[in-house]
Design brief:
This protein is an alpha+beta fold. It contains 6 helices and 7 strands. The chain has a 5-stranded mixed sheet with strand order 2-4-5-7-6. Strands 1-3 form a two-stranded antiparallel ribbon. α3 packs parallel to α4. The chain is globular, with a radius of gyration of 20 Å. The N and C termini lie far apart (52 Å).
């Protein structure tokens, strides 16, 4: 009975959080909708159009802050880790499926999405839903912050006791401190990137690690690794 009451209270708290977030999102969404209508009318000169696009970006950033601060952060605090493990799921197949689903988004942004994958399955025990979300977050982050005509490169490396997945983009250059902020809750940095904190936490729940390499020529390479608990690779 005590557990039921606790679950009911959690449900009520989530409802309150959603109601608050909906209220706080109404204003920025109204601005975005109105600005979109004006931009669609083609009634602005180039200077005003660019200024309105700049304000749209700021308003969208505030909407993301509401989502992160009032929904994502609080939900994460109210829920314990709950992994639903699929035994011997093929991580490479999951990556291929994720790339196929994200390819249209990359093409629409004028980005070429490439992948270097091993030519054999890598069976592991992991939560398919959570790791799929991690992949989507890393790749979408790279697509969003790369310019049209750029390349997003996903690579998979098998190391002694882990498998490492990295996503390299050609977006604005960031330093190591900014990269760590992106992986640890905070939005922003020079590239105004969205937080990858939720993805990092999901990786760590699996006993893995997440990081960023900012020493590349341009952009950044975000990566995560998972332990190879089972090395029964089917060549």
């Amino acid at each position: 009975e005590k557990q039921v009451l606790e679950l009911q209270e959690i449900g009520r708290e989530k409802n309150r959080l959603v109601e608050t977030a909906v209220h706080d999102l109404r204003n920025p969404l109204s601005v975005i909708y109105s600005f979109s209508e004006i931009l669609q009318s083609n009634s602005l000169n180039e200077s005003d159009r660019l200024e309105m696009l700049k304000e749209l970006k700021n308003v969208t950033g505030r909407a993301f802050e509401v989502i992160d601060n009032k929904l994502v952060n609080r939900f994460e605090e109210s829920e314990k880790s709950n992994l639903v493990i699929t035994k011997q799921a093929d991580l490479i197949q999951l990556i291929e499926d994720s790339i196929s689903l994200l390819m249209p988004a990359a093409e629409a942004a004028g980005i070429k999405l490439k992948a270097e994958l091993p030519g054999f399955p890598v069976p592991l025990d992991f939560d398919v839903f959570k790791i799929n979300r991690v992949l989507n977050d890393f790749v979408l982050n790279a697509i969003t912050h790369s310019s049209s005509g750029g390349v997003v490169q996903l690579a998979v490396k098998l190391l002694n006791d882990q498998i490492k997945i990295s996503v390299q983009d050609e977006g604005a250059k960031i330093n190591a401190e900014e990269g760590e902020r992106i992986l640890n809750r905070e939005n922003g940095g020079a590239a105004v990137r969205s937080s990858l904190n939720t993805a990092r936490q999901a990786v760590e729940e699996h006993g893995g690690r997440a990081g960023v390499d900012t020493s590349t020529g341009k952009g950044a390479r975000f990566w995560f690794s998972l332990p190879l608990e089972s090395k029964r690779l089917l060549f």
